[in-house]
Design goal:
Blueprint lengths: L1 H38 L5 H22 L11 H24 L2 H8 L2 H12 L6 H25 L5 H18 L6 H26 L11 H27 L2 H4 L5 H14 L5 H35 L1
């Protein structure tokens, strides 16, 4: 009788730690987006994104050196890891460009159509079956995005669609993770993403500088701007580490809904720094997106359980 109670307590403790880690990550990650919005007032978003990945790369290297773990930087599937980094850098660039033109909370809210896009991509590429209820959830979430986009599109034009592009790139990133489940450690993932992102974005920044385009050309950052770029890289590194640690300790279905805390923290920081606050229709759109995302997450959990029990049933 004692052993089951102990195991249950341990599981509950792990879930509590995981919930704390995930909540912490969702509260600090929007700070990175707010800093990116602030920097985009004086630096091209491409340069801000480049700085984010460069400092992520340097922080990963520094942690490996300080822990005498240079081997931990080595990836077992470098090609896949670098592809992840390219997709992630494209997603971040799209998002950092978006927050230059629109409130952070609005951009993050639209970005959360990502579970719907991932479901569509999984159906098209992985041939996963999508039932009528999930199709209804996808359409509901997209309707919520359209409600949020309505005033933004009238005010800033096609740039308001950048969070949707962000969601598409990030969904593709997650799809690659699903296709190539690896055993790389956190340092290898962070280092690989930082390296590939720095290379791709560095080349793009060099081309923009040669062409003399002010929106893509390198501008020498001052000490204050460099400090903020370092902060973005550090928050990215820490935030990713907290999320990975949370999912290592807790149940995915328990943690997934907490990602929507990001909307709350983004709204708070966006209001404190820029005075931005979503209007009534935007909150309705947010509610539709969050509700659809939660339903899709729940359906995915149920389907995974069914897949896990099917082989046992056949035996």
């Amino acid at each position: 009788m004692t052993a089951p109670a102990s195991a249950s307590g341990s599981g509950q403790d792990n879930n509590l730690v995981a919930l704390s880690l995930m909540s912490g990550a969702m509260m600090i990650v929007p700070i990175m987006d707010v800093i990116a919005k602030y920097l985009s007032l004086s630096l091209p978003p491409l340069e801000v994104t480049f700085g984010r990945f460069v400092f992520q790369l340097l922080i990963s290297l520094a942690v490996a050196l300080m822990t005498w773990n240079l081997k931990g930087l080595r990836s077992k599937r470098p090609g896949v890891n670098y592809l992840r980094g390219i997709l992630l850098s494209a997603a971040v660039l799209s998002f950092f460009t978006a927050v230059k033109y629109m409130p952070v909370a609005t951009a993050i809210s639209i970005f959360f159509v990502e579970p719907m896009i991932l479901t569509i991509l999984a159906a098209l590429i992985l041939k996963e079956k999508v039932g009528l209820r999930r199709i209804a959830a996808i359409l509901t979430g997209l309707a919520g995005a359209l409600i949020i986009l309505r005033p933004s599109f009238l005010e800033i034009g096609p740039a308001s669609l950048l969070p949707v592009l962000t969601a598409t790139f990030f969904a593709s990133y997650l799809l690659v993770n699903r296709l190539y489940k690896g055993t790389d450690g956190l340092l290898a993932i962070q280092f690989g993403a930082g390296l590939s992102g720095s290379i791709v974005l560095g080349v793009a920044l060099a081309v923009g500088t040669l062409l003399g385009d002010p929106d893509y050309a390198f501008a020498v950052p001052d000490l204050n701007q460099t400090g903020f770029l370092f902060a973005i890289g550090a928050i990215s590194f820490v935030g990713h580490g907290l999320v990975v640690s949370a999912f290592q300790r807790g149940e995915a279905a328990l943690l997934a809904p907490l990602q929507y805390l990001e909307i709350v923290s983004a709204t708070l920081f966006g209001y404190l720094v820029f005075g931005d606050f979503p209007d009534g229709p935007t909150w309705i759109g947010i509610a539709l997106i969050v509700g659809s995302g939660l339903y899709i997450t729940q359906r995915e959990r149920a389907l995974n359980k069914r897949r896990a029990t099917e082989p046992a049933a056949k035996l």
